[in-house]
Amino acid sequence: MVDPHTSAIIDGWLERLQDNGCRRTAPRQAVVEVVASSEYVLNPFEVFEQARQHYPGLGLVTVYRTIEKLEEIGLLQRVHRPSGCQGFVAAFRGHQHLLICQDCGRVEMFGGDIEKMDGLVAEVEKDSGYHIQEHWLQLFGTCSECQRGVNP
Amino acid sequence: MVDPHTSAIIDGWLERLQDNGCRRTAPRQAVVEVVASSEYVLNPFEVFEQARQHYPGLGLVTVYRTIEKLEEIGLLQRVHRPSGCQGFVAAFRGHQHLLICQDCGRVEMFGGDIEKMDGLVAEVEKDSGYHIQEHWLQLFGTCSECQRGVNP
DNA sequence: TTTTATGCAAAGTATTTGCACGGGA
DNA sequence: TCCCGTGCAAATACTTTGCATAAAA
To answer: FRET pair for A105, CA 20 to 30 Å: which of A25, A98, A130, B33?
Structure first.
């Protein structure tokens, strides 16, 4: 049901939680099982619904608390979209360079030459006098599956 | 108290509201006076507080309703930040290419060569198979005034 | 045994809606 | 006059907190 690769990821996340002073518990594991492997943006309630299938006694509050912790550790990141900002995805290495499907919520990190970005940031920093600490680059569109009408 | 240039902008916004089926009223004007000329991100309550100085009887609900209308028309845009997504600024022409001070909330549009962005978008579109409809690029930093400790 | 985690219920926040009155056109 | 706009109060949605119990280390 859960492939070995996914299971290793989940275990890694639980270990990271332990390293940060959290205990390994069934409710947390249920939440991690959902968010660590999903390639879609999920809001707390969606995580709750899915994780409850792994651990029926789960409370929504525990989902909120676990998400908070995972975000703090850097394993989850919040995704801001025109339609709202309650969603989360597994954090990608590096910055918020996200490609998001507005139909199904699938999220990908995009490649392409990102060096251009660094050049642009440096340029704006010089022109504006700002000291830039962070940047977000997000592309919104329709993934190929949704273009073909595959997803519901 | 209000310079002619600013006053013309406010009048333009009120006209745009009228073109969109809204009446010209004192409460709306008070809201527009605040948001049309501010270079800072303001949340609904901040707009309320400031606009109340122009029109003391103003209700918070009217602020929400006016902001909603202005966003719909495209005169205001919501600003998403690590610290929250309740803020608005006067909409800049074109896309969300924002340079935001994390200390004082000042927002600027940035120049620099944005063509790079268009190239990057086209590249990602080709590589990913997505049909990209929109993109957000936001830089977060500290403006020169805040670096010098000018703002409170 | 000691301390953290959990779920429930309650409390906060932020935003939206219902409604009777008042003011624009 | 007619109808939209307004403020108030209430309702709703989302998230956080307090607390007694349960479970991990």
So the answer is: A25
